[in-house]
Amino acid sequence: MGLVSRTLGRVKPSQTMAITNKAREMKAAGFDVIGLGAGEPDFDTPDNIKAAAIEAIKRGETKYTAVDGIPELKQAICEKFARENGLDYKPAEITVGSGGKHVLYNALLATLDPGDEVIIPSPYWVSYPDIVLLAGAEPVVVETKLEDGFKLTAQALEQAITPKTKWVILNSPSNPTGAAYTHDDIKALTDVLLRHERVWVLTDDIYEHLVYGDFTFATPAQVEPKLKDRTLTLNGVSKAYSMTGWRIGYAGGPAELIKAIAKLQSQSTSNPCSISQWAAVEALRGPQDFLADWVKSFQERRDLVVSMLNETEGLMCPMPEGAFYVYPSCAGAIGKKTPKGDAVENDADFATLLLQEEGVAVVHGEAFGLSPFFRISYATDLETLREACNRIRRFCESLS
């Protein structure tokens, strides 16, 4: 009898974490490595949020809290949903977890049975399929197309739904592509879902505030209120407030689902960090003016990276609407060899050899379910990004 369960044997470790750790190890060993694999802003958490955490410590807010969030944070989340999304949630319809991934994990484990199916558009955030597998259900991956802006179409959604479909997961703006669904894009999908009353919608809005130009963010329960009773609207403070390490995610949904999530959480982690919860209250209620500066910086970085990659032989990089990722095609490099004779047979080879030859860490497209692409996180300074893109160009030009 093996030690590891058959359930755990169905899943893979997070490949984005693996790339980030590999880059850290190489740096520690003295290699000149630029890591573009991590999905977190490089800005510091705003001072008012840090101050709120310190005050919470001084007040002695260091004990257990309610399993799925303090009342003050739940109320602040209700205010956020009303103010920014036009969604009316009550505190009993709010759950708080230790990060967005935790909330997603809880929701799927609380609702899925063996044989259930979850529709996941690819490219996808690496954890979606594996969490579905951990819950004993089956991920149904629907490939999107570059020509459709990496977005799920109504026709593809309709074709993927079966009597076993329990959830559809939508992520906008997307990790890894930065693609974002317009109001009309979402309406086309919600029109399909209205015809399938047993299918629930899990919308991952964690990059909501990181959109560029004149793009206007929208979320499914806002676009189609008739779907609100079977939608879990997931968000968190990690990306918008640069609080990845604070580990606070949250979601709004029907009270019955929220109660089931709390039941599961009561037997696993119990409450999220008390100090982080008080910091999140300040994040949601405090000044939001810094966001405009952050978004401006991210847009400058995006424009630089897209421009430089599109000038690179063998690469083609679409312009994303949001998040802080680009997802370029490396199809023009496949089938070539490095000067040392190493073959680039797929995007995993491309990423591995790029790290070996030029010290640039990116994540290969296979990890996100769509090849031949790779993901770059541009959540770092312009000088570093310019150097990284120059190294990528040099690597591509060396291939023959």
From the N-terminal CA to the C-terminal CA, the straight-line distance is: 49 Å
CATH topology of the largest domain: Aspartate Aminotransferase, domain 2
Task: Tell me the series of helices and strands, N- to C-terminal.
Answer: HHEHHEHEHEHEHEHEEHHHEHEEEH
Overall shape: it is globular
| The level-1 CATH class of the largest domain | Alpha Beta
Q: Which whole number gives the mean pLDDT? A: 96
Quaternary state reads single chain
Which structural category fits the helices and strands?
alpha/beta
Q: Estimate nothing, just give the exact number of structural domains.
A: 2
| Contiguous uncertain segments of 5+ residues | none
Going across the major beta sheet, what is the strand order? 2-8-7-6-5-3-4
Tell me what the CATH architecture of the largest domain is.
Answer: 3-Layer(aba) Sandwich
What is the count of helical runs? 14
CATH homologous superfamily of the largest domain? Type I PLP-dependent aspartate aminotransferase-like (Major domain)
Give Rg in angstroms: 21 Å
Q: What percent of residues are in strands?
A: 5-15%
Number of strands: 12
| Largest pleated sheet | 7 strands, mixed
Helix content: 40-55%
Summarize this structure briefly.
By secondary structure, the chain is α/β, with parallel strands linked by helices.
What would the keywords be for this entry?
single chain; 400 residues; alpha/beta; Aspartate Aminotransferase, domain 1; Aspartate Aminotransferase, domain 2; 3-stranded antiparallel sheet; 40% helix; globular
